[in-house]
Amino acid sequence: MKFFPLHPAASILSGLLLGAGLAQIAWLSFGSSRQPGLAGQTTGQHPLHPAAGAGHSATANLHGKDSFQEQGSKAAHKDPQAAWLDAMAMTNLEERTAFIDGLLRELARTEPLKAMELASSLPAGSLQRDAYAAACAGWAAVDPEGASKWATTNLHGPLAADAFTAITREWADSNPAAAAAWVSSLPNGALSSGATEALVGIWADKDPSGASKWIDSLASGDNKTGAMETLAAAWYAQSVDDAVKWVNQQLDKPGGGDVAQALIGAWGNQDPQAASQWVGKLTGDTQALSAGTLTALWAAHDPKTAADWAVGMAPGLARAQAIQSTATTWAGIDPQNAIAWTRALPDSPEKKTAYNDAVLTWAAVSPTDLTSWVNSQPAGADADHLRGVASTVLVESQPLDAISMTRQIADPARSQAALVRVLNRWGQYDSSALQGWLATANLSPDVASRLKYVPEPKP
User: Fold this and answer.
1) Taking the domains of the chain in order of start, what are their residue ranges?
2) Dihedrals φ, ψ of 9, to 5°?
3) Averaged over 396-417, what is the pLDDT?
4) What is the rounded CA–CA span in Å between residue 314 and residue 303?
């Protein structure tokens, strides 16, 4: 029986628990041509703080009750150059970022090129990206056409992506159709994905039907799928019935399965019982993925009810996926009860998968507790299986304990097989440590011959 990997919406908890981490876009290398700007670097204490020394400061008379963003916004109307020097003197990164955001956002409404010049003077990195985005947002609030033209001409890479999103948020709030026309002209890829989803999220609050018509005009691809997912979740917040009707119309189209997951991601958090009735009407892979998404969300706060629903489904891939997802999420919260539930399931491939996933999750969350619990189990085939499964995850944090666990397996053949798995796993991520251990381990020739990740000793 095949099992799908859990959909990202369904594996939020389990993925974190297992340390799997979701793939992230990495901007590895982008040439940056710095625009002429100010050095902007000064030393000294930040004059907004009580310990600040005396002397002129554009922000010295601002009220302490204002947030740093508000202080930056007010300073833009006094002496923005002096305020910028104050910002550069701030040592708290969060405060400095908020102050710069307010300053550039407000300054760009009247002097957009000055705001861009100040942003360009920052070193490349997240602070500069935030600064450009703030300046573009302020400019777009009064002149979105001007801001969009400048950004598409002057910014590239992640700077452009953040700026495009910021401009779209401002523009879509006042004229979503015009913003949509601009977003449609952007490159179809990572640079425009944030802008596309920002546009749809705002447009959906005003006119979800209009947003859906624009999405229909997009070429198939990641941007269109992302926009559809955004619309499904946003539309659900306004009208469950309308959102379901629209999603049903997308199911047979490219990306329709992902749209169903987006709807369940919102619905499953609010009313999983009602969402389960809709999932029960789906078919094929879409139903299986939706069932996994739903039970991951449901089991996070009501695992017993989620488990009852999962086992009550008709036999098939969707039921298997729901059981697997429930076991993984439940084990991250209450592992002993999760494992007890999987043990009580009728014998089947889905039982074995759910049982193993529950043990693996516990091994990742609290290996010490799992080890103590495993050691308290009666000797026999069940305890041997537990040790074999748990040791494959335990090796990543406690390799010597994992090796010890494999040697406690009563059946010699299973013990040896588990030891080989653990040693090969250890060699995958720390082959030199394994090599050091092997120097005094005195392994049997049969085990040694089955190792795959041991480097040749250095001469």
Assistant:
1) 366-459
2) -65, -30
3) 91
4) 19
Residue 295 CA to residue 298 CA, distance in Å, equals: 5
Is 156 within 8 Å of 189 (Cβ atoms)? no
What single string gives the DSSP state of each residue in 116-172? HHHHHTSPTTHHHHHHHHHHHHHHHHH-HHHHHHHHHHH--HHHHHHHHHHHHHHHH
Distance, CA of 113 to chain centre: 34
The first and second tokens of residue 61, run together, are: 């008379």
Q: What's the pTM value of the predicted model, to 2 decimals?
A: 0.69
Non-local (6+) Cβ contacts of 436 within 8 A are none
Compute the distance between CA of residue 83 and CA of residue 25 in angstroms, rounded to an integer: 34
Cβ contact 419:450 at 8 Å:
no
- Nearby residues of 310 by Cβ (< 8 Å), 6 or more positions away: 291, 295, 319, 322, 323, 325, 326
- 41-57: average pLDDT: 39
Residue 65 neighbours by CB distance under 10 Å: 6
Q: Characterize 336-361 residue by residue with b for buried, 16 or more Cβ atoms within 10 angstroms of its Cβ, and e for exposed.
A: eebbebbeebeeeebbebbbbbbbbb
- At 71-121, the pLDDT tens digits run 999 999 999 999 999 999 999 999 999 999 999 999 999 999 999 999 999
Contact status, residue 8 vs residue 291, Cβ threshold 8 Å:
no
Say how many residues make up the chain: 459
